[in-house]
Amino acid sequence: MPAEPAPDFPFHRTDPLHPPPQYALARATRPVLPVTLYDGRRAWLITRYEDMRAVTTDARFSGEFANPNFPAITPARRVVDKHERAFVGMDNPRHDHYRRMFTREFGTKRIFALRPRIEAIAHRLIDALMAQPEPADLVATIAVPFPSLVMCDLIGSPYEDHPFIIACAAGRHGLLQTPAEAEEKARALSAYFLRLIRRKEAEPGDDLVSRIIEEHVKPGNLSREDFAEIGAMILRAGHDTTTNMIGVGTLILLDHPDQAAAVRDNPDLVPGAVEELLRFVSPVQFLPRRVALEDVPIGAVVIRKGEGVFALNPAANRDPAVFPDPDRFDVHRDASRHVAFGFGIHQCLGQILARLELQVVLPLLLRRMPGLRVAAADGEIRFKDDMQIYGVHNLPVAWS
Amino acid sequence: MKVLKVHVDERKCIGAGQCVLRAPKIFDQREDGIVILLDPTPPAALHEAARKAADLCPAEAIAIEEDA
C-alpha cells in the first residue's frame, strides 16, 4: 500500500438517502482509494462501476473469508468471518459445488410459482395495517413480517421463531456490537438450523429443508453441519435485506409522488422501478469484499498480493459513466446493470425471490392505500447508521 | 442479414437467473436452476436482449458471437 495518509473507513453519510460523498469525490479523483480500517490495516475502495465488475469477476481476487488478510469492517465482523462455513466465504471450485445444491430452491421456476402465496401474505399484512390506528409503523407491520413470513413458508421454519432469527441477523449485521455478541448470535442461529434439520428429518414437509435433506443430506453430498451453516446464511439474508428495501423503498417512493403514482397505475413500470430502487438504495453497504492473491493492476494502481479490497456496490451504482445523473431517483431509467446484488460468482442467491417480494408488496401498498404518506416529525425516522445493511428502523405512515 | 450466436457454459452457470429475467425467449432455467439455451440464433429483434443478458451474467457464462 502507498505510504500516503488514508482516511478512516467506513465514511459517514451527509444525506440519509445518498451514499457518503467521499465515493463520488474518489471516483472523480482517486477511483481506487486507499483507506484505513478499524484495526489500522489498509484496504482499497473501488468506486467505479467497471472496476467493481473487474474485481468481482477476477479469480485473482479471493472471496475466502478464512484468508487472514480478508478485510473486515468491524472487529465483530472479523470474528464471524473466521467462523463462516457457508459458500458465501469460499472460492471456486468449492463455492459452485455447494451453491449448486441450492440453485433449484432459488431459481426462477420455483420462485415464480410462489407468487400467489407471496401476494396472499402481502394482502393479509396490509389488511392488518389498515385496521390499525394512524399513524402506524410500516417497518413493524409490513417490512419486517412480510419477508419473514415468505421465508418461513419457503424454508419450513415456524413463524413464531422469526423474532429470534431477526435478532440473530441483527447481531451479525450491526456495526456496533462486540465480537462476543456477534459470535454468540452466529452460533445460536447455526444451532437453531441444525435443530430444524433434525426436526424435518423426523417430520418432513413441503419445504426447502425437507427437500435438501432428501436430495443432498441423505445421499451423503452434504453434512447436516454444513447445511446448518448454509441455512443460517439463508435465514440472515432472507429476513434482513428485503426488509430494508421495503422500508426505505417505500420512503423514497413517497418522497416522489409523481413516480409513485406512475408505478401504482402502470404495472409495466414495476420491475424497472424495483431495479431503480435497488440501485438507488444499495442496502448492502460494504460488499463485495475480496483479497488479492497476486499483484493485479486496477485502473492506475497495482493492488498487491495480500491487500484487501471493498468493491463497493453503492459506489458502482452511482457511477455517472453507467447511470447518467446518478443521484436522481428515476423509475423510468434502465437501472438493470446495477450491482446491488453484487457481481461475480457470489452474486445474491436469493435475488429472484427478493425482486419478486418487492415487485409484489410495493405496488400493492400504493394501490390499496392510495392516501399512503409519511407521518413522521422531523428526525423521527431513524436511519440504520448503526447497521451494515442500510435502511430505516421505523417509518410512521398514515393513509386516510 | 446479421447473425448473432449465443453460447452458454453450463459449468460456469451459478443459477443467478439474470438471463431469464432479461431475455426469456432465449434463456430458461432447468429445474435445478442451471441455464437452458432456448434459441442459440435469436432473431434480430432479440439481439439487444441477448447482448444485455450476456452483460448481466455475473458468472460470465454467456458469450455472444456476432459477424463484424
Provide a descriptive summary of the structure in words.
- The complex is a heterodimer of chains A (400) and B (68).
- By secondary structure, chain A is α+β, with helices and mostly antiparallel strands.
- Chain A has a single domain, classed as Orthogonal Bundle (Cytochrome p450), CATH 1.10.630.10.
- Chain A contains 17 helices and ten strands.
- In chain A, strands 1-2-8-5-3 form a five-stranded mixed beta sheet. In chain A, strands 4-10-9 form a three-stranded antiparallel beta sheet. A two-stranded antiparallel ribbon of chain A has the order 6-7.
- The longest helix of chain A is centred in the middle third of the chain and has 32 residues.
- The N and C termini of chain A lie far apart (58 Å).
- With 68 residues, chain B is α+β, with helices and mostly antiparallel strands.
- Chain B has two helices and four strands, in the order βαββαβ.
- Chain B has a single domain, classed as Alpha-Beta Plaits (2-Layer Sandwich), CATH 3.30.70.
- The termini of chain B are close together.
- The model of chain B has no long low-confidence stretch (mean pLDDT 95).
- At the A-B interface, α5 and α17 of A face α1 and α2 of B.
Q: Quickly give the CATH architecture of chain B.
A: 2-Layer Sandwich
Question: What is the domain total for the residues of chain B?
Answer: 1
The span between the termini of chain B is 12 Å
Oligomeric composition of the shown chains? heterodimer
- Count of folded domains of chain A: 1
CATH C-level class of chain A = Mainly Alpha
